[in-house]
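Entry:
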Amino acid sequence: MLTLLDVTLRDGILVAPYLNDKVRAYSIINCLLESGIECIEIGDWDDKVKESGPSSCDMSYLENLPPSSATYCMMIHPQNMGNVNFEQLASTPVNLIRFPCLPTTVQNLEPYIYKAKEAGFKVSLNITRASDHTLTQMMTTGKLAESWNVDWLYLADSNGSMMPDEVYEVIDYFRKNFSVPIGFHAHNGLSFALANALQAIKAGASFIDTSICGLGRGQNLSLELIGMFLGIKGELDLKIMPIFEAIWQEIYLLEGGYTLTMLENASTAVLNYNLDKISELKSQNSSTSSAYLKKLVQDFDEAPRVRA
């Protein structure tokens, strides 16, 4: 079973600081929940950041997360682990911690992974900069993490330089050699984020990271793109209208018109609309600037699903 994990409020904030506003963050989380996203990364724990919100994951922010049965997770980087109180964090709605590492730094995580597990958290070990490492190095890292009873293993194409066949090979090898679920985090440096994610899914990945509009350093896999691509095939049940509302209300005015262009391009491609059809829809839905885009999303949400 495939689960999308949205990282808008963690990775996206690296290029869009306005996402650190708590009111905006809660609004985006509610839209993600309404769309059907089952796993949301709500930020990056860092007690050196004094502003309350996703960039600090302070208690005030965490304790007021919208009530939900979805999995809330956060990332804790090695340089920020010294003052983490996992027992205190366990009193919040967060139930999964993601620890990023390199093969050369993984040993440093052992005591923190045990502490997180003892506090009741699920734990994901995320091997970053995958294209910098050999398969043997990543396997050794994964086996060490498995001995610590991590719940997930993740591979991140942090440099955005992996090719689809490489992604398939690595994910397939991990899936065959580990008993825990495997996840993949794509970057779009070579415009292969979607292709790489699809190869990861084909190879057996259980989790795929996404972000709204692909927001993130190096650009992530667009949530609305993969959501519609897999949705029209009947392989994923995701409502796109709440994602459109998040873009329109919380992102577009601060990020720019390209966010709407991305949504339009993804919608018309997935729906297989030609220029004549697009022109017709634009002329029929010209009353407001959002009417045309909303009609595209409505068409997607109402389109029949055809499983390949």
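The mean pLDDT is 96.
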